[in-house]
Each structure stands twice: as C-alpha cells, then as structure tokens.
Design a protein that fits this description.
The complex is a heterodimer of chains A (103) and B (232). In chain A, 50% of the residues lie in helices and 12% in strands. Chain A is mainly alpha-helical. In chain A, strands 1-3-2 form a 3-stranded antiparallel beta sheet. Chain A starts with 8 loop residues before the first helix and ends in an 11-residue tail after the last helix. The mean pLDDT of chain A is 86. Chain B has 232 residues and is an alpha+beta fold. Chain B contains 8 helices and 5 strands, in the order ααααββαααβββα. Chain B has a 5-stranded antiparallel beta sheet with strand order 2-1-5-4-3, sandwiched between helices. In chain B, α1 packs antiparallel against α2 and α1 packs parallel to α3. Chain B is elongated and about 105 Å long. The mean pLDDT of chain B is 84. Classes of the chains: A mainly alpha (103), B alpha+beta (232).
Chain lengths: 103, 232
C-alpha cells in the first residue's frame, strides 16, 4: 500500500495547478514555471503524487526525431487526486481563504 | 593623458577577456548541464533512469537561458537524492560492502597461497589444474602460466603408475590421502625431491568438484634422519 503524500505548501501548489485544468496534460517544465518550483522540489513531488495515484503521466505523442527534441512527460490529475486535493483545500480554506482559491 | 590611454587600453582588454570568458561559458555550459543531468539520473533506481533521463532532457530543452539550464541541472541533484529509492540505495551500499569484503577475502586467500612454502595444487574432476601456487612453481620449476588447464598427470608424468597417482585419483572418490617421504624426480627443477603430500577432495555446495594437494619438501629432514639411521 502506497503512503499518502505529505501535503506541504509546495505539494499543494502542484495540486492547485493540476486541479485548475483537470483535462489538460501538463509537462514538468510547464508546472515548474506555473508553480515557480525548482526541479529539485518539483520532481520528487510529482513522483510521490504519481506513486500515490493522485497524478498520472504519459509520454507525449510523436517521435523525438520528428519532434527534434526529447519527448515531454505529460501529467494529469486523476479522479482520486482530484478528490483528495479538493478535500485538502476544503480543510485549509477556512484558514487561508485567499491562498487556494482554485474552485 | 597617459593615464587616460592606459584606462582605455585596460577597459578594452577587460572587455575582450569578458567576451572570451562568456564565449567559453556558453560553449561549455550545455555540456556541464548535460553531465549534471546524467549524474542525477544515475542516482535513481535502474528502472527509473530511462524515464527521467528523457523527461529531464525535455525539461532542460524547454529552458531558454544558459544559466537557467545550469540551475535546473544543479537542482536535479537534490531531486534525485530525494527520489532515489531508499531500498535501492541500501542494496547498492550493501553490495559495495559485500564486494569489498569479498575482495579483501580473495586478496587474503591469494596472500596465503602465495606466501605458503608448501606447494598447493587444485584440480577439477577431469584432473585439470585450476590453481598452482608459487610454492608449486618452486618445487617443480614450472610456472603457473603454462600449467593452468592442463591435466596434472601430463604436467607431472612421473606420478603415473605410482602411489601418487592413486592418491590423486582417490580424492575424486571423496577420500583423503597422506603420503610421506615420497621421492619424485622433478626434471624441470632438476631436483630429485622427497616430499610429504596430502590430497583432499574439494566440495562446493555439497558437490565434489575436484581435489587439492599440498606438497611439502622433506629433503633436509630426510637427509638428517638418514644420517642418523632413522630412515622410515
């Protein structure tokens, strides 16, 4: 059984970005820009969220030779992730109402 | 006037040096960033490396500036330390420790084999020699390079038909044999030696895999005993 990810401020930032566009697939670079998180913080979070089943990822379509660059890994929030994130934000909302105005 | 000229020249030289350094940094930074990325990837568990190699390369590719790329690659060092599977790291450390212990043990065994004044020979079930220590080299005058893999009876033909051959063959029946004061005419060392020899079967995981023989030269002792009239 995979442990639930620790909901640090940085993890919540990632979840907020993911939940704000649930149908969209986001690359690591895009999430890093949006959250302003360094790769050293971002990728461990992405890995933990993916392991917990809150995020899912896949390679973007296309051959790297045709794209002329390495393929991006695209992340999307799962149903479970969405539910868990909403619950976490609901819990936090009364304390910090303006910080996570995602909904 | 002179001071002004020197200032201008100094400024030009500084600017030129700056341009050169900037060019150099520009040329080297992609390589440095790539090296840092590889280093971070190597820290991950083997089944994760390919994925993150490609994913991080794509991310690196999306960063426009040289400094940004370097900061990203440096930051990956922290990421990989946090992402490395603790169990994998522990296994790696354990494997390193075990390898070091095995190496020390092997070195110690080799040290013992090399230091032994006794000749030590190991052979497999086909009587092919798999170990021939310096003691055997001294006894026989034959070096390990031309001995390994050869049948012991081809290397030491004077054993054939003697109690020595019987003793060696008996090891493959799982029995130990000790021979005392055996005289062997060893042509290669030009020594007509008298030896005590001990042969034992060798087992690996319960299976008989060959035999080991120890040869101890007895020339001095035998000569003394003979002169004292105690020759057995």
């Amino acid at each position: 059984m995979v442990a639930e990810p620790r909901l640090s401020a940085q993890t919540l930032k990632v979840l907020a970005i993911a939940i704000s566009s649930p149908q969209e697939e986001l690359s690591g670079a895009w999430i890093a820009r949006a959250t302003k998180l360094q790769s050293g913080t971002l990728y461990p979070i992405l890995m933990r969220l993916e392991k917990a089943g809150w995020l899912m990822s896949r390679w973007e379509d296309g051959d790297p030779r045709e794209l002329g660059r390495p393929r991006r890994r695209l992340y999307r929030i799962t149903g479970l992730g969405s539910k868990k994130a909403k619950a976490a934000f609901d819990e936090l909302a009364p304390a910090v109402p303006s910080a996570f105005a995602w909904a | 006037m002179g001071m002004n000229l020197m200032s201008v020249v100094g400024a030009i030289l500084l600017a030129a040096a700056g341009i050169l350094i900037a060019d150099d940094c520009k040329a080297w930074s992609p390589r440095l960033a790539s090296r840092l990325l590889h280093r971070a990837v190597r820290r991950l568990a083997p089944d994760q490396r390919q994925r993150y190699q490609e994913e991080w390369e794509a991310h690196l590719n999306d960063i426009p500036g040289v400094i940004g790329k370097l900061v990203f690659a440096l930051s990956l060092q922290r990421a990989s330390r946090m992402m490395a599977d603790g169990r994998w790291e522990m296994l790696s450390r354990e494997r390193e420790m075990l390898t070091a212990a095995l190496r020390r043990e092997k070195e110690f065994s080799e040290f013992l084999l090399k230091s032994s004044t006794e000749g030590i020979v190991v052979f497999d079930r086909e009587f092919r020699i798999t170990l021939w220590n310096p003691g055997m080299e001294r006894v026989t005058g034959m070096t390990v390079d031309c001995i390994l893999g050869q049948r012991i009876f081809d290397v030491l033909p004077y054993l054939v038909g003697t109690i020595g051959e019987a003793a060696i063959r008996t090891t493959l029946d799982g029995r130990e044999t000790s021979l005392y004061d055996q005289r062997y005419p060893i042509a290669e060392s030009r020594r007509d030696g008298i030896y005590d020899s001990f042969f034992s079967p060798l087992y690996s995981r319960g299976y008989l895999v060959g035999g080991i023989g120890f040869m101890r030269e007895r020339m001095v002792g035998s000569a003394v005993r003979a002169s004292l009239g105690h020759n057995p």
